From TrEMBL:
The encoding gene: tig
Originating organism: Malaciobacter mytili LMG 24559
SUPFAM superfamilies listed in its UniProt record: FKBP-like, Triger factor/SurA peptide-binding domain-like, Trigger factor ribosome-binding domain
Keyword line: Cell cycle, Cell division, Chaperone, Coiled coil, Cytoplasm, Isomerase, Rotamase
NCBIfam families recorded: tig
Domain PPIase FKBP-type: 166-265
A GO BP entry: cell division
Name of the featured protein: Trigger factor
Record PROSITE patterns: FKBP_PPIASE
Lineage: Bacteria, Pseudomonadati, Campylobacterota, Epsilonproteobacteria, Campylobacterales
UniProt-annotated location(s): Cytoplasm
GO MF: peptidyl-prolyl cis-trans isomerase activity
């Protein structure tokens, strides 16, 4: 088989050839004979089906298999000539031309994407200066006060007064649509924090000013997007009785408080707690500093300084992803305009190309950095992060993991984790940790 295989650059190659009718027919005979040995067709003993019968019954499928066999042979030979290993390929080869001629020949042109060769050079010299963040006493005191309030027990107020914003109002309530009570609309001795936004809009505001044992009709309208379709958009009346008012009494910040906050520490004091708070605040501040300032600056510098070829198919995928995301935010009129004028889509693709190239380049750089620094993220680590985030959002971790798997998000999540891990390591080294 004659073919022409050329390297466009280090990351792209093109294979062109004409698959002759004779080659396709030769392959068709071969796959038909193989099929005849295994097919079970009524009227014939298994393995004794005549090849002519197989060709007649499965003509289309055999032709596809014969063409696939010729293409596999073409690609294998071309990659060998170009000295491209299978492990260096990115994705599957794509067809830019597949033209069946009247004489039975097939003209093909195949694009091959390869992992780019990246010379990182002295990449550590490009790391920006890292300034250690300091935490002052005021920040520590504010966090201590927050902890004191958060851990404070609810206590019944000593003097009887009206409900105000921030109070915990202990109420009975029952909701009605018209004269009919609805499911889930009733509770007794419910501690509702006024201003928390826990109830539907307008409810909590009407509790303000109520006094002990006062009864009141609270009139509200359920939001149009409310989860229960039977209630969505409807006006409801809640019959409310206020029993008592509770408030949180902040705990005194002393060594006993420190022991409650640090149960695993041996004889902790307020000073111990302050040191722990300082460590937490500093970690949070440095993480934000790394994430929002240093990491983007470092990646931008690497993208600017390092030059290497990028696989065009990966750039096209990135453009397609960005284009689809943009289209999802467009109005019906805008989408219709795109459908009627293909040049507008091409203009959008050109606008997105520069950012797509930067994104793809950054991804390959991070991959090269990770290899240079011996950094990896296991599939188990990815799963743990997804589980943790799902639990934080109150969602089922297994359902979220399945959704991400089906949507193909896991490789991107893994690469994001690798990026965070390797650049954090380099920044920590720069800081002298």
């Amino acid at each position: 088989m004659e073919f022409n295989a050329q390297r466009v650059d280090e990351a792209n190659a093109v294979i062109s050839a004409t698959l002759s009718k004779d080659l396709i027919e030769k392959n068709l005979d071969k796959v038909a004979k193989q099929a005849a040995k295994t097919l079970d067709i009524q009227g014939f003993r298994k393995g004794k089906v005549p090849v002519a019968v197989v060709k007649q019954r499965y003509a289309d499928k055999l032709e596809q298999d014969a063409e696939s066999e010729a293409l596999r042979e073409l690609i294998t030979n071309a990659l060998a000539q170009l000295e491209i290993k299978n492990e260096d390929l990115i994705g599957e080869p794509s067809f830019s031309k597949f033209d069946k001629k009247e004489n039975g020949d097939i003209d093909v042109e195949i694009k091959v994407a390869c992992r780019p060769v990246i010379d990182l050079g002295d990449y550590k010299s490009l790391i920006p200066e890292v300034v250690e963040k300091e935490i002052d006493e005021k920040e520590i005191a504010e966090r201590l006060e927050e902890m004191s309030k958060a851990s404070a027990p609810l206590e019944k107020i000593k003097r009887k007064r009206a409900v105000k914003d921030g109070d915990f109002a202990v109420i009975d309530f029952e909701g009605f649509i018209g004269d009919v009570a609805f499911d889930g609309g009733k509770a007794e001795k419910y501690p509702l924090q006024i201003g928390s936004g826990a109830f539907i809009p307008g409810f909590e505001e009407q509790i303000i000013g109520m006094k002990y044992e006062e009864q009141k009709d609270v009139v509200v309208t359920f939001p149009a997007e409310y989860q229960s379709k039977d209630l969505a958009g409807k006006e409801a009346v809640f019959k409310v009785t206020l029993h008592e008012i509770q408030e949180k009494v902040p705990a005194e910040i002393d060594d006993e408080f420190a022991k409650k906050m640090l149960p695993n520490e041996e004889n902790p004091t307020v000073e111990t707690l302050k040191e722990k708070i300082k460590e937490q605040l500093k970690y949070a501040e440095m993480s934000k500093y790394y994430r929002e300032e240093l990491k983007p600056a470092y990646l931008d510098k690497l993208v600017e300084e390092l030059n290497f070829a990028l696989p065009s198919s990966v750039i096209d995928q990135e453009i397609n992803f960005a284009l689809n995301s943009k289209v999802r935010t467009m109005s019906e009129e805008e989408i219709k305009a795109l459908q009627e004028d293909a040049s507008k889509i091409e203009d959008m693709r050109n606008e997105l190309k520069e950012d797509a190239e930067k994104s793809v380049k950054a991804t390959f750089i991070v991959d090269a950095l990770a290899k240079a620094e011996g950094i990896d993220v296991s599939d188990q680590e990815v799963t743990q992060v997804i589980y943790y985030e799902a639990l934080q959002m109150g969602q089922n971790p297994q359902d979220i993991l399945k959704q991400y798997q089906e949507a193909g998000y896991l490789p991107a999540i893994k690469m994001s984790m690798i990026e965070d891990k390797v650049i954090t390591k380099l920044l920590d080294e720069k800081l002298g940790k």
